[in-house]
Amino acid sequence: MSSLDPRINRLELPQIPGGEILKNQEHWITYEVFHIKKRGDHPVHVGCVHAPHPDLALVFAKEQYGRRLACVSLWVCKSSDIHAFSMEDEDMFYSAVSDEKKYRDASGFKVRDKINKFKKGNSDALV
Amino acid sequence: MYGGGYIFDKLQDNQVNDDPEKLLLFEERIARGEKIEPRDWMPFDYRRQLIRLIEQHAHSEIIGALPEGTWITRAPGFKRKLALIAKVQDEIGHGQLLYSAAETLGKSRENMINDLLNGKSKYSNVFNYPAETWADVTVIGFLIDAGAIINQITNSKGSYAPYCRALERICYEESFHLKQGHEGLVFLATGTFVQREMLQDALNRWWEPIMHFFGPPDKASVHSEKLMKWKVKMASNDDMRQEFLNTYVPKIWELGLTLPDPKLKKNTETNKWEYTEPNWETFWQVINGNGPCNKERLKVRMWAEEHGRWVRDALKTNQLTQSVPLA
Description:
The structure holds 2 protein chains of 2 kinds. Chain A is an alpha+beta fold. In chain A, 24% of the residues lie in helices and 17% in strands.
């Protein structure tokens, strides 16, 4: 076999043995990556990398997620160290946006009508 | 860059009985335009087909770096060499993003690579063809990347959230690939007689693989309806091929170049492109391992795994336990 790529012709290409060539975890474990776009911003989750330890996870994260677009820092942490609610339980967060809890939202307090009414009723007194 | 003409498994309706109530909720969620996250309930076949699709896409990115990589050492000029290195590195990065997206569905990266090396998983057929001259690199960079962008923008509107997120990142980088490919192609097209000849020759050789790129015609496709409903497949092969022809054939013709299909023209009444069907027998031959470069591609991939092993082993710590990416 002769390749058009001279570098490949210099290699001694192996036969492919078949079966399980890579064992699970031969590519280590996954780290989640968080990207900080500019000073003052929250870190935002952007994906993950495979790495054996946090130092190398940072190196790979820089290659993968820091080589385009603005970035001032990256965070990594083991995927298995993230604890999360199940997305199937999303209804338990409903009250946060429901109308029943207007009493703790700025939009739940209206004063302009009362002020206008008051001004109208007391127009003489206010002169 | 690249993913097109996916080969899906045959759907196996009766193999696994998904909970009909959960299936209904799942389908309603997709119909509302909501995304599916990794830990959500999903039908067995949805998971299986997505793994297969995203995995093929990931392999295509990795293997796709090889034909273009052929020319890194001989790129004409320093800027082109830098751009090509950057592009090839992008493709490898895309592969990593896509492997991670597929991993969220429960198949390990190692198993995906095993299946690639053993010929069980496929990758885009175009990468089984050689890049014979520098003009091939410009044709790949312009037309194959263009096809890939059409495919990926379409797929990024699908239902599986991790895949969509990966594709959004990928599409951003592809715009640079497309531009640098177009620039290289225009440079040759507006250059000397010899440069134009070289480009025309590359177009002639790549036209059939490009027509194969979006996969077999719809009438030959057996599994589209359910995959479309689940937003795994977002557009038919023929529709994407039409979109490609409509945008890119004029960009070739405007340079006074030709494409090796005398029937190729836009029907002004139907607004559709007419063309000679490429030889689909060749397509299946190449997919099944008999293309000009299949063996070389896999052996080079095998070489990389084999020669990287001692580095990976050296870096191993004994606290590694299996985990699956979250999102």
